[in-house]
Design brief:
This protein has ten helices and 13 strands. With 329 residues, it is an alpha/beta fold.
């Protein structure tokens, strides 16, 4: 998705900190969520994702810095301002002894929606989250995934402009996680803005922008593709070469100016990862040079796309190494 520079920003955090003392809290948070985009927040458990969410929805105020949502301080939101927000907390908070439909009517009543208005919205929402067949079922008899989707429906009942979801897919099987992200992307395509924390690093691929957090601080913010390039230092080409030519191939490639780094492929006896600035441009050039100069024709040669687990580990490790260097200086 291309994010227009003309789109107004929904969330702005400017050096925002919430210091609980003894190193707990979030510190120097700077981020901007454009309108009509999904921003994912990933990081280890306890890194500050939920605390940052609570600053944005006005549960907490910053001890320093500034938080703006719809260009207003969320601590000073009016009732009308709050209606522009939808929030899905980590844990199920609806009424277990009410049915799916009754829960949604209750939520609609809290938002001041009239019975007819609620009924008109509930049916299409249940279809959207695929709970139509369970509309009479008690909430306590729903599976964890269905409860998550019920909370999503509740958060969308009043048609908010910004949906904040705190680990909405935690503990849910991969198929249901994919379904929830399909819902999120559909909302994004309707022009809604979403801020979603997740413990599943691979879900970064579904986002337009990704925030990586560690120890209460933001390590980096980038697009999914940008994160991959950032973690790997550019693009990577995966070569598989006959074992008796592997050393010669590696020595030749690592001396080329367009190759920034070379690594053995983990788990392969004949694999090389070759780091370059632009894999699409350099792959045919490297194949031509290998054939012409070394008479080597790789058995396999293709751009390597790292998993987001690998990307996350590399980014966190680089952050830790940077911190060690700063401490040593």
């Amino acid at each position: 998705m291309m994010i227009s520079h003309e789109t107004s920003n929904v969330v702005l955090m400017d050096n925002a900190s919430l210091d609980f003392g003894k190193g707990a809290g979030v510190f120097d948070i700077n981020l901007t969520l454009p309108g009509g985009a999904i921003m994912g927040v990933i990081g280890p458990s306890g890194c500050g994702k939920t605390t940052m969410i609570r600053l944005i929805n006005g549960i907490y105020g910053p001890t320093s810095g500034e938080v703006r949502v719809f260009d207003k301080n969320p601590l000073k939101f009016t009732g009308e301002d709050k209606l522009r927000l939808g929030y899905i907390p980590q844990h199920f908070i609806l009424y277990p002894n009410l049915s799916v439909e009754e829960n949604l009517h209750f939520i609609g009543g809290i938002y001041g929606m009239k019975p007819g208005e609620r009924s008109a919205k509930i049916k299409p929402l249940l279809e959207f989250v695929e709970l139509s067949d369970a509309h009479k079922r008690l909430a306590r008899k729903l599976s964890g995934g269905m409860q998550r989707r019920l909370m999503l429906a509740g958060a969308l009942l009043h048609t908010p402009d910004l949906l904040i979801a705190d680990e909405p897919t935690a503990g849910i099987d991969p198929i249901l996680r994919t379904r929830i992200w399909e819902n999120f992307r559909a909302l994004r395509d309707e022009g809604k803005s979403l801020l979603v924390t997740t413990q599943y690093v691979g879900e970064a691929a579904y986002c337009d922008l990704v925030v990586v957090m560690r120890n209460g601080r933001i390590v980096t913010i980038d697009t999914p593709r940008g994160l991959q390039r950032q973690a790997m230092g550019g693009d990577v080409i995966h070569f598989q070469v006959q074992r008796d030519r592997l050393v010669a191939c590696a020595r030749f490639l690592e001396d080329l100016p367009q190759v920034t780094k070379l690594e053995r492929t983990p788990g392969e006896v004949d694999g090389l990862h070759v780091f370059v600035d632009d894999a699409g441009k350099e792959l045919p050039n490297l194949l031509s040079l290998l054939k012409e100069k070394q008479d080597i024709v790789p058995q396999n040669a293709e751009p390597y796309v790292p998993s987001f687990d690998e990307v996350f580990v590399r980014i966190i490790q680089a952050s830790e190494q940077k911190q060690l260097v700063e401490v040593a200086q």
